[in-house]
Amino acid sequence: MDRKKYVLSFDLGASSGRGIVFSFDGTRMEQICQHRFGNQAVYLNGTAYWDFLYLYQNILEAMIRVGTQYPISSMGIDTWGLDYGVIDSCGRLSGNPVSYRDKRGAAGADLLLRKMTGKELYQRTGTQFLCGNTIYQLFYEIQKHPEQLNNAEAVLMIPDLISYFLTGKKGAEYTIASTTQLLDMKSKQWNFPLISEIGLRKTLFSDIKYPGEDSYTLFSEIQDRTGMKEAKLVTVASHDTASAVLAVPAAEKENFIYISSGTWSVIGIETREPVINEKGFLGNFTNEGGFGKTIRYCRSLTGMWLIQECMRCWKELGQTITYDQMGEGLKDTEEFMCFIYPENEAFQKQCDMPKAIQEYCRKTGQKVPQSQAQIARCIYESLAMNYLETVEILKEQKKADYARIYIVGGGSQAAFLNQCVANATGMQVAAGISEATSYGNAFAQLYHAGEFHSQWEFREMLKREENIRYYEPENKDVWKLMYERYRRVIKNDGGQRI
Predict the structure, then answer these.
(1) Between 263 and 167, where is the model more confident?
(2) Cα separation values, 239 from 165, 244, 433, Å
(3) Which of 269, 336, 356, 385 is disulfide-compatible with 486, CB 3.0–4.6 A?
């Protein structure tokens, strides 16, 4: 008799989605099935929408595929942050959700920051400034197109919206709600005075739910259609980064810094209380929700986007190269040939990235990289230097002795970058678990089922069962000198900081 427990984790990102089945035998977790699908914004009359019906249909297709093969006991959903959908007074979807990349976010920010300062907002919420923050999207709508929200029954973040159309139950999961800039991170509840000040009804916002604590029954017609008659939908850490950080294989009471490494790199620490001060405001640090009502004090930086864009450009030129091939070529390439500032505006949009990097180096009076390996080495060394600045601020803010950095997510497979991070920071790096988000999602389901008693049990299992690679710092004195050179370059680059 199969005594394994099977859970289904849905992880939806801004460019792709996946459903992964995990089995758990009481000792270890194993990925046994995947369903992947694309995701992209659809532009209609100048507005960037998400195709919610397409996403919902792919979730159903994945449920049908796995529901007939495995006795799924539960499922969970995590997604990107910031975006929401509106439920009307009849319980129906009121239009497709708009993407955080749409221009209305910047327009809403401009309007709201005439009413209150960014510093005041930060002091009241502890949330970083991003043009796409939910608060700015909602403020734009209530100012310019109030009809939808005036006639709405609920505003639900994307994972909560999907859950609603699978179960009929409304809720606001804590970690995804923390991306809205409408949460009081001290009380970990909605900031209703702020919500009222921007012209929204309190009743639009559902009760806060915490990951691993609640579950809901699927609609009977969905049970029949998918074969998942026993499965519950569990409230997981539904912000993808929160789920990814759950899969950091750290020991209990260990002081650690994490990097969730993907297109973006989110660098931070776990704490019990929010960190809200001048340094955090000026550095655009944010306080976001984590499992167990924790706070992730973190900063979002440009990550693998730079190398991804270079590889896309090279592929279009017929110069296809794999990450492994690139890693081999880097070993014989000149060290510290040149640096870029990864947050420079020139690198934030899709472009001819190799050319943009060359132009930056030319403008800043440095050697200009020519080969793929030279450009890639410039990117990796510059990313490591950029990470170092954030690591130093975290150490200063918390006055703690951090001995190790954990890198999880897709970027954890970039061995050369991992070594650069160890060298730049002078700290040991532990890297692995490329599907960290889906693992964290599955953990919350298993925790709800009583299979784990804490996240530390789960993290200990990952450390024991998964392939974690360790990188010791090398040539620390040389990297310290090069960091000073990097600082001089970016100080005089003339580029706009974001």
Answers:
(1) 167
(2) 18, 9, 18
(3) 385
